[in-house]
Amino acid sequence: MSLWLDATRMAEDIKPQRIYEIIDLLDTAAKSHQRKLAMEYVGGGNRLQRFKEQRIWSTIVEFSGQLGAAYEFCLAQTVLGVPGYGALKPLLPTLTCRALRALTLELKWALMRYGPVDPTLWGRSAALYSKAEQDGFVLELCTVYPGPWSDSSVQREYLKALMLSMSATDSLLPRKLELAERIVADFSGYFVLQKQLAKGCHYHVDLSVARSPARLVERVTTLPTMRYFGPGAASDVVEKVIDTITETGAIPSNLTSGATTSPAS
């Protein structure tokens, strides 16, 4: 499917609306395969043969990268004013959220291997967020994908990537990193991201450079392109959830739907 996504971007004389329809079709068709591969990788642990582990990892990273690029291509049609681009205008929040979600998936799988994250990933994510902020739809709720728990915003999707990156994933095994990503998603509505430093903002990111986010230090240079972010009220909410899990020994039913990790993990 990665090849088809790439071929769609390279095709000529296809209207933007049709390009989006093809990408959406490929995206939808790949969902079940992605979940199956992810479960095999995370659940396999040390039982997976090295070549199979590498094959699964490469397949998911390649597809998520191509998917993000495909949605970015759709967005570029609206910027360039390609004939027929008007049909995509109402979809700008959804397209941007999908692009960010694909890039976050690519980020997660880079973290799975404890390797360096491609800095262009951060540059692309920042560019998507900046454009949404500039065009005034960064906080607009939209349906990213059909189904339950699908409403989100560009800011929320960007925050998921930022907070996942700052979650000390270099000390987590793949199964626990998978759970960490789900927890970040569950509590992302409490996260904060703003132009001014405020309570609950422990980290910063510069939208003008292709660089990973970082912990806030006293001597950080303040720039117009700087954004400050952090867990906000999520810390207090998570503490209450931890207390509940400790007391009952069970993960609340509304938390991390589909998680296979035990409460003790």
Characteristic key phrases:
265 residues, alpha+beta, four-stranded antiparallel sheet, two-stranded antiparallel ribbon, 6 strands, 56% helix, disordered C terminus
SSE inventory with pairings:
Blueprint: H1 2-10, H2 16-44, H3 50-80, H4 92-112, H5 119-135, E1 142-143, E2 151-152, H6 154-165, H7 174-187, E3 192-194, E4 203-206, E5 214-215, E6 226-230, H8 234-248
Antiparallel strand pairs: 1-2, 3-6, 4-5, 4-6
Helix pairs in contact: 1-2, 1-3, 2-3, 3-4, 4-5, 4-6
3D architecture notes:
This protein is α+β, with helices and mostly antiparallel strands and 265 residues long. It has one domain (2-190). Helix content is 56%, strand content 7%. The protein is built from 8 helices and 6 strands, in the order αααααββααββββα. The protein has a 4-stranded antiparallel β-sheet with strand order 3-6-4-5, with helices on one face. A two-stranded antiparallel ribbon has the order 1-2. Helix 4 (92-112) runs parallel beside helix 6 (154-165). The chain is globular. It starts with a helix and ends in a 17-residue tail after the last helix.
